[in-house]
Design brief:
Layout (H helix, E strand, L loop, with lengths): L5 H12 L6 H8 L2 E2 L9 H6 L10 H5 L5 E5 L3 E5 H6 L11 H17 L4 H8 L3 E3 L5 E3 H11 L3 E7 L2 E6 L9 H16 L2 E2 H14 L7 H11 L2 E4 L2 E4 L17 E3 L10 H8 L21 E5 L2 E10 L6 E7 L10 H16 L12
Antiparallel strand pairs: 1-3, 2-3, 4-5, 6-7, 8-10, 9-10, 11-12, 12-13, 13-14
Helix pairs in contact: 7-8, 9-10, 9-11, 10-11
Amino acid sequence: MKVLTLDELRRYAVARSLFQPTTLPKAIARLGFVQADPIRAPARAQDLTLRHRVLGYRAGDLEARYPRLAIEEDYFVNYGFLPRQTHALMHPRTPRTSWPQARRAQAQAVLDFVREHGVVHPRQVDAHFAHGTAKNWFGGNSKASTQLLDGMHYRGLLRIARREGGVRLYAPREPHPPAPDPATALDALVDLVVGKYAPLPERSLSELVGHLRYGAPQWADGRPAALARAKLRLPSARVEGLTWYWPAGDEPASGRHAPRDRVRLLAPFDPVVWDRRRFEALWGWAYRFEAYTPAAKRVRGYYALPLLWRDRVIGWGNLALANDRRTVQAELGYVGGTPPRERGFRAALDDELAQVEAFLQPRVAAAPRRAT
C-alpha cells in the first residue's frame, strides 16, 4: 500500500474544500454548514467563504437570498447557516439548563405574540412587553427581549425569518418530531463535520464531535460513542506523527488534487484554515485570529486573511476599501519575509484582488419596466 504523504494531504485539503464554483444552494449543501461572523473587514466571514465557491457571488447575497433558500440560521459546531434537513436532525433541542416557570411563561407570551404577527423585529417585542435590560455575556447590558428571543430560537420555538440591517427577525417555527434513533442522527452530524473539515487530525475530530454539544445538547452523553463509531468507519492514515481521518470514498493521494496557479485570500473561518492544529501541521506556521487581541499585541492585523498560493498558505492580507469605495487596499505579509518569486504569482495576486473588488460592489437593482 502506498504511504500517504503530507504533501498529498495538503493538496487534498485544498482541492476538496475549494471545489469548482457552483450555485449558492449547491455550495451550501456541499459545504454542509457555513460559519457566520458579524465583523466586516472587508466583508462578513460567510460572504468571504462563499465567494470562492459560488459563481458570481457578491457580498450580502446570502442575507438577501436567505428567505428564499431551504436553509436555517442556527447553532451547529458553532453558529451559522445550514440546510434544513441538517437543522431538523438537531431538533427538538433540549438545552442542558431548563428555564424556571416565570421564564417559560414569558416565552409563551412572546410566542403567542409572534404567531399573531407572523414575523417580528426585536424592538416590536420590547415595545409590547417592556422586558427591560439584562446582562449579556460580554458583561454589558442588552435588551432582555433580545436575550429571550435568542433563547427561544435556540430552543427551536422560533426561527430566523430574515435580517434587516443585520438584525435578526423572528418567526414561529413548526416543531419537528424527535429523531427515531439519536445514534443515527449523531452519526450523520459527525459525517457532516468530517465532510466539511477533512482531512482531520484525530484530536481535531474529537474536539469537533465535542462541539456538537452546541447543536445537539440533548445528546451530549452520546458523543463519546459517536466518536468511537466514527473512528471505526472512517478511512484514516498515520502521517508524520498524526492520525488523519476523511470521508469514505475519498482518495487523498489522487492526482486529481493537483494545485492550480491561484491566489486566494481566505476568511479566518474558512474551512481550509479553520482548524488551527491542522493549519500548523499542513503549513508549518501558526495563524491566529486577532480581532479581539489588543492592538498593541497583534502580530498580523485586526482581520488578517490567510493568503493561499496554489496549495500553500504563504502569508496573510489585511484588506480595506479605499475612499472611492471601489478599490481595495491590501497590506500583505509573508511568512518567508518576501513574496514568492515563482512565475505567475504576481498576476494571480492581482487577479485575486480584482475579484475581491468585484465581490464587494453592491448589486444594482433592476430598473422597473415602463408600462406600455
